[in-house]
Specification:
Shape: elongated
Order of helices and strands: EHEHHEHEEHHHHEEEE
Largest sheet: 3 strands, antiparallel
Number of helices: 8
Distance between the termini: 116 Å
């Protein structure tokens, strides 16, 4: 008799994108892959393990999967060279260069793996779309995914410091500073890097990247509006004035949203596709933040110190007008009988949107 048959197979796979990130289900499951059910031919062969012995199809470092001709990763929407989702120049796990022992500066935090695929602590300016991020990170919890986006690393710079005590923080630059002279004092003399590898040499599988040091000149000798310092200064002020900051950085790390510090740095050659895809490493992009983050501070509440002097007066001897007329009995001189000097420190909370004055301290000063 006729026996109807329908053959189906279900392919379920767990694959790591970044070999250093494989601790949760989301790290191993490809988002948007569906149920894996496939209609098979009744007399056909089934290949249940098509990826065994091959490079993971989910493997998507900088440059994309070497075995894929497509520039995009599987169902994630992250392009092969997307600096907002993966570190530039890290083509495999062998390319990581993690520092050891004590870190020399606060900006060296940018060399620590952040626990999401192919990324160290994020210090660049570009932001990844939230929907793309949930697929790329494998985190289906939208609320949790919001707080694990790369840009959220900026708040780390409110928590860490290289200062051994408060005296060591004197002279730090407030990220809401708007004066050119102050930013010139910060960046003047900083040694940056510029990429100098010829485009023709970037076609090899493992190109030897070359960089040259470049000293940022202070404003007095930097050459006007087209200087490196002027471009960085304008970039910081423009970013602070734009949404969502609207004129005020609330965290020290908010300054990292300035493209001129990283992805649009005037120190770097970004004028060709080979340079963008293979000529600039993550540490070269983040060179300026690495050098200056220890010297910045933010999230400061404005403070004012008010000195007030009060005096008690009485008419001095023979100071009244005794002659008849319109000025009769008017006092022409006074004698100080008591005085007091006070010092008040007032903090402004909620600035700049909802300012509220709070008295931090009030002291009566002595006669000395």
């Amino acid at each position: 008799p006729f026996t109807p048959i329908r053959k189906k197979s279900q392919y379920i796979t767990w694959q790591a994108n970044d070999p250093l990130v494989h601790f949760t289900t989301g790290d191993l499951v490809t988002s948007g892959a569906g149920t894996g059910l496939v209609d098979e031919q009744p007399n056909g062969s089934i290949y249940p393990l098509p990826n065994i012995g091959k490079l993971n199809t989910r493997f998507e470092p900088w440059g994309g999967n070497p075995g894929s001709s497509a520039g995009d990763s599987q169902q994630s929407g992250v392009t092969a060279n997307d600096p907002a989702a993966k570190d530039p120049g890290v083509f495999s796990s062998d390319y990581w260069d993690f520092p050891t022992n004590k870190y020399p500066a606060l900006g060296t935090l940018g060399r620590i793996h952040r626990g999401t695929p192919w990324q160290t602590v994020y210090m660049k300016s570009a932001e990844v779309n939230l929907g793309v991020w949930t697929n790329w990170s494998g985190n289906p919890n939208l609320l949790d995914a919001i707080h694990t986006q790369p840009k959220m690393d900026r708040v780390l710079f409110d928590l860490f410091t290289t200062a051994v005590d408060q005296n060591a923080t004197r002279g730090q630059v407030n990220v809401n500073q708007t004066n050119l002279a102050t930013w010139s004092a910060l960046f003047g003399g900083v040694i940056g890097l510029t990429n100098t590898t010829p485009d023709a040499d970037l076609t090899s599988v493992q190109p030897f990247l070359r960089y040259e040091p470049l000293v940022i000149e202070p404003a007095s000798v930097s050459g006007g509006d087209n200087s490196t310092l002027a471009k960085i200064y304008r970039g910081i002020n423009a970013t602070r004035a734009s949404a969502p900051y609207n004129g005020y950085f609330r965290h020290t790390g908010d300054i990292l949203a300035t493209p001129e510090l990283t992805l649009a740095s005037p120190l770097l050659n970004t004028n060709s596709s080979p340079q963008l895809s293979r000529g600039i490493s993550d540490s070269a992009y983040e060179r300026l933040p690495q050098m200056v983050m220890s010297l910045l501070r933010g999230n400061d509440q404005p403070r004012f110190t008010i000195y007030s002097i009060g005096q008690t007066l009485q008419p001095a001897a023979r100071s009244r007008v005794m002659a008849a007329g319109p000025f009769f009995n008017m006092c022409t001189n006074y004698q100080i009988t008591a005085e007091v000097v006070t010092r008040t420190v007032v903090r402004i909370d909620g600035a700049p949107t909802t300012p509220r004055a709070v008295i931090e301290s009030y002291n009566i000063l002595g006669p000395e």
